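Suppose a classmate hands you a notebook page containing two proteins, each written out with its sequence and a corresponding row of structure tokens. How would you begin to make sense of it? This section walks through that situation. The first entry is reproduced here exactly as it would appear on such a page.
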Amino acid sequence: MSLRVVHTSDWHLGHTLASHSRAHEHARFFAWLLDLLEEEGADALLVSGDVYDRVIPPSSAVRSFYAFLEAAHARCPELDIVVTGGNHDGAARLEAPAEVVERRIRLIGGYDEARPERVRVPLTDGHGEVAAHVVAMPFLRPGDYPASLGTAEGYAAVYERALDAARERCRGGEALLAMGHCHMAGAALRETDSERPVLRGGEEAVPTAIFGRDVAYVALGHLHLAQPVGSERVRYCGSPIPLSMGEAGYTHQVLVADFDGATLRSVRSRIVPRSVPVRRFEGALEEVVGEIAASDLPDAEAPAEEHAFVDVRLTDLAPRARDRVREALAPFGARLVAVRIDAPIRQMVGPSTVSSESGLQTFEPEQVFAALHERRRGGPPEEALVTCFRELLREAENRESTPA
């Protein structure tokens, strides 16, 4: 008895980057994923949380999700689709169409302690026979387990109950799988704009030991960097598109897992083609300007939705840095996300310049902020404070660019 499962997560439909919609990239990803499901002859598709970017997603994101489900069922009518909720999803909204979608599509937005059987989903093979059972666990909130338990202990208790129930249903040769949307102990967590630290002193890391040796595969979501955790059977597939400039270097992928009976035979990565370039340029201003000029960024005449996202990190201070970068990008189809100054604070403008209105006009807001902080506080601002300043500046710039 064989089974082929495709694992994906963290779509974040409705996401924007520097106020630009990602709908085009998601549409291209869905088209590619539909082709892959057919090409691979997949028996099941597991989507491990964060379907949407916000609890209340825009209607266009909801339509996109429903259209994908309809197209997947039309092209692969025997495909089992299991979708679980993540911390960005509203449980009720994700489950809203559950009563009207095809029986092979299971939407589990939240955990219901009174109905634990909802998270156990049978998966069938190409002959219509049950080949596996998956514990399709959504993101667990503190109210989903006893208040006396911490996160790790709470997750362990909920999974133990669900896995034991699934084991009772497994017959010889049927695989036992699990899904989850959480941070597993031992996983690499990158601090990016889209992936805030989820740990407070380490207490929220869930140990992989909660999955017994008989669990053949664990399909995880929540972290955007694809990676195994401890073994090949416990995997994050990562997000299908970069959700911040910090993820520009990620290799985005979905995973294809093959099973022989109850045993995991192999896990393969299928790389998601990047439909829109996401580029970061770093160095001194003159170096960055030269690199942009020699780059393969899209032409300015390319459709707007295909314009690259560009982030610039400068290691020196120079007047009109932002203007120089914009001028360098003018021949290309590019959306400038940010120009950040990573130069040492001591290189920042001095008191006379900070006091001069004409001097201020030649420097970036972040340079002035850092210089003022050093002047008044006697040292550079902490990174957390700089991050808050950047967010406030971005909000202010967005308000200024929005017509009244």
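The notebook's second entry, a different protein, reads as follows.
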Amino acid sequence: MSASVSTATLLRYAAGYIALGLQAEARAELEAIACADQDTLPVISLRAHLCSKEEDWAGAATLGEKLIRLEPSDAGHWIQWAYAVRRYTGIPNAREILLTALIQHPQEPILHFNLACYEAQLSNLHAAKSHLRNACSLQAECLEMALTDTDLVPLHPWISAGLPLD
């Protein structure tokens, strides 16, 4: 790409390549972005997305942490970071990220839902139930998601019973 192509255009190209499953082409477009723009939120965000598509969990985790430092008010950045960390270093570290995020985003249902998944996988079923109840009270669709989520298999009988109080 020529130096005259704007960062916004290169980001659109890269996003298009990612959508088509053409990661090498997407990476080339991202590399063509001016050095001055490499540490901007849109570029880091798309790089993190690309790393996730490539299953480069170390890269995605590093970029996810940069995202929350740039924009901690976006719960999606916390979720993305935790997802990468789960795959890179494990559930306990991802759990800690989401517990920190929950302080800033207590009304975000996906934080509660993912914490329910992590707690269930760590055999902390009481905490998993609490987070799942919170997620479902914030977003009814979480109940349907819970019935098919493999992380929540330990809770499926309880979920099928309608989340009764213990």
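A careful reader of the second entry would note: Residues 57-70 form the longest helix (14 residues).
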